[in-house]
Amino acid sequence: MTDADERAPVAERAAVAERAARAGGRVAHDRFRSDIAVESKGEGDVVTEADRAAQRTVIESIRESFPADAVVGEEGDEAKAVPDEGAAWVIDPIDGTHNYVRDIRVWGTAVAAVVDGEPVAACTVCPALGDVYTADGDGAYRNGDPIAVSDVDDPLRATVDPTLWWGFDVRDEYANACAAIVRRFGDMRRFGAAQVTLPTVAAGGLEGTISNLRANPWDSVGGVFTVRQAGGRVTDLEGNRWRHDSTGLVASNGALHDEVLAAAREIEELD
Predict the structure, then answer these.
(1) CA 122, 230, 146, 136: dihedral to nearest 10 degrees?
(2) Residue 143 CB neighbours (<10 A)
(3) Residue 250 binned pLDDT confidence (cut-offs 50, 70, 90)
């Protein structure tokens, strides 16, 4: 990679992220609600040829502009960790594959541009919902219109999502996450796709989302950046600024972050 590649303007990276996510999203949407074979990658994890085809398309689109950048992707042989130095792209071709294979429209194709370990641009395309979330150096947007986190500051008016997937060996933690939410907040949603959940926080549809787990970068980096650019706050379980290698993911509208963080900390403490 050249120094010029790393210094490419954020606006250029944002445009490429959106172009690539839209291209991958079209591939995935063309196969949605079709008779597509579903394979297991392990406990509770599934994949389809649509995931692989969409990722190939996303990478091809990125390579047109940034042929030497590192790529971090969920499928195949791509890197699985975000480098702390240099430029990289973080890809989830279909976040919410469980929804996808059950013909539920809540899924998205997510692409984030990262420089020296920090996201600088992101796009999540949700073709079946008709929404495109983008974030750049100036803000966050849905379908081109600026978005902002909600201003709700009363927990009893708030809705929070328990995000990521708890394995069968820690289902008590999944139950605790739900219990912590329903005890503290007005309502709960679970979308089953972190890269849709996080932009929904950014757009004010949720006041927060919590997990005690370490998120895969493709499930989180772009959405976290979108929340921050919309005025929200994202931390780990200790309340420190979230990074791609953090344990726990706590995103909120900011006004309720202490309450959302307290709920996340209860996940491993509730009886």
Answers:
(1) -30
(2) 10
(3) very high
Q: How far apart are CA 206 and CA 254, in angstroms?
A: 12
How far apart are alpha carbons 177 and 62 in whole angstroms?
37
Identify which of 128, 1, 7 has the alpha carbon closest to the alpha carbon of residue 68.
1
Check if the beta carbon of residue 110 is closer than 8 Å to that of residue 216.
no
Same fold across 3-137 and 155-265? no
For the purposes of burial, counting CB atoms within 10 Å of the CB of 78, is it exposed (0-12), middle (13-18) or buried (19 or more)?
middle
Dihedrals phi, psi of 207, to nearest 5 degrees: -90, -15
Tens of pLDDT, residues 91-137:
999 999 999 999 999 999 999 999 999 999 999 999 999 999 999 99
Q: Which residue has the tokens 């929804």?
A: 99
Tokens, residue 130: 């008709």
CA distances to 123, 129, 152, 219 from 141, in Å: 9, 15, 20, 19
**CA 70 to CA 168: how far, in whole Å?**
33
CATH number of the structural domain 3-137:
3.30.540.10
Distances (CA, A) of 115 to 5, 99, 234: 10, 31, 19
Question: Coil, strand or helix: which one is 9?
Answer: coil
Q: What is the pTM of this model?
A: 0.95
Element (H, E) at 73: strand 70-73
Q: Which CATH number fits domain 155-265: 3.40.50.10490, 3.40.190.80, 3.40.190.10, 2.40.128.20?
A: 3.40.190.80
Q: What angle do CA 94, 98, 101 make, to 5 degrees?
A: 85
Exposed / middle / buried, residue 34 (Cβ in 10 Å: 0-12, 13-18, 19+): exposed
Domain ranges of the chain: 3-137, 155-265
